[in-house]
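PROTEIN–LIGAND DATA SHEET

This sheet pairs a single protein chain with one bound small molecule, arginine, given as SMILES. Inputs appear in the order they were entered. The predicted three-dimensional arrangement of chain and ligand is reported afterwards as a token string under its own label.
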Amino acid sequence: MSTKLKLYLGRKVIESLHKTTKLSPLELQPLIQIGNTDKMELNLPMNLLETQLGVTNVTEILKIQPDDIIRKVQLVRDRANRKISFEIDQNIFMTDVIENGAYPDVNFKPKNVVVEYSSPNVAKPFHFGHLRSTIIGNFISNLNQFLRNKVTRLNYIGNWGTQYGFIQVGLEELGLQPEDIERDPLNSLYRSYVHANGLSEKNPDISKRAKGIFAKLEGGSKEELDRWRKMMGYSKAELVSTYKRLGIEFDEYHYESDYSAKDIAGIVDVLRTKNIIQKDEEGRMAAEIGNRRVAVLKSDGSGLYLTRDIAAAVDRFKRYDFDKMLYVVDNSQSDHFHALRNILYKMDLPWADRIAHVKFGRVKGMSSRKGNALFLRDILDECKGMVLKKQIESPTTKTPLNDERTADILGVSCVIVNDLKRRRQKDYDFDWDKVLQVQGDTGIKLQYAHCRLRNLELNCGAAPASRCQPALLLEPEALLLIKEMAKFHDVLYVASEQLEAYVLVKYLFDLCNHINKAFKTLRVKGTPDELASQRLLLFNTARKVLENGMIILGLTPLNKM
Ligand SMILES: NC(=[NH2+])NCCC[C@H](N)C(=O)O
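PREDICTION REPORTED AS:
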């Protein structure tokens, strides 16, 4: 269902209120939802009318006269909720869904949204929390893009702190040359870090050396910085190519090292002047957040993770002038982002309430045969290997899958769907058997349905009609499928309000069930041309809704498997 009909209704409702509300039809329109009955109806829930419009008396709305589009207006009670139901002319409803339902609506108030996600640390494993951040952040970005907001996808790489002195020492001790690092950057940095740490357990000089190197780096030593930048370049190249396998591209890579001593000095000045930080008993400068003391400067005057985040937020607002900035980071950093927001408030930055921490739960039980140092690349290889091993059978050819690219995409699809199918705050256990189930609600199910529809389009010998003829699509399976497709935009609206993907995932599974039922009864092959082309048009829209939904989730829809 497109906005057109909803907008029409919105206008009618606002007119009926005789200018007693300041809301515009545009703002009202997202509140209008597809009804859950067999009828072609749109509903306006009373609780939303009350909370969003301040309207408690609906007598005037109920007086809206039926016309060619709105057939009947009445107040209905659905369990505890009351709604105003608008019955829509069936032909108009069907035509609107089939001809416009798969495409994004016009957005009259596009927002400028920055989404920071993934944000791994070089020299530390890319753990499952980073993978979840990558998947969820990509979904949120795709969704906003589909809703026609302006999106900046930002990856903020952790590459700063004393541990980076250890990497340098490790590199020296292992005798690794720039070429070695270039060949296998993330792994070399990680190995060096682990090596130096091991050495430091027996030899305290190692720690001293590491600290010395980091102090030089932080002090702005050109030689150290150049070396460090070079290594970051290699690491970024590896990250970019690995993200590509996931179908992910970032607009920006920022580094914690972008916000070192010089940059945070200005921030610290503001914090001091506004008396937001005071010296604590350990000599650190700390802010009071609730009943906690949170350090912003170490006793030696160097900055911390939080300090760099304050500087980064200020810098990002300057660069992007965002309406919203989302940090997609696991639950364990709640206190950190709470402190960040609190301090930005105290700094009297008017945009402090535009930042939000999008948190998510933990994953247990993801183990790799390669041991516990997991990198994104290893996780993806593991997915692909599992798909190939499982010999997932294709619905069309019934031959075991042995195409590597398809296996890669299928594996990734399964991991993404498995992650996005539940509320993001939930912890969950990772279980390969469940992730890759052929029967069941997995990425494979969505890919199957998509391939099936593509296959029909390409091989049935007919072409879809360009205009819908509702009279030819009156079978119950067709009507149910149309009603299901009509919900697409409602679902996207809820998903973006709650920043929850599971509503979309669940919807796509339901949609697939309706598609499969319609597929069985509404034959295309061997059907008279006119009917065949109408059915094909119906399936064509269904495929586009599914395809767009899958793309928003971050899947690459397959045409064949
Ligand atoms: N702006 C931020 N602090 N983003 C989150 C960064 C996550 C950090 N690199 C980590 O892995 O723990």
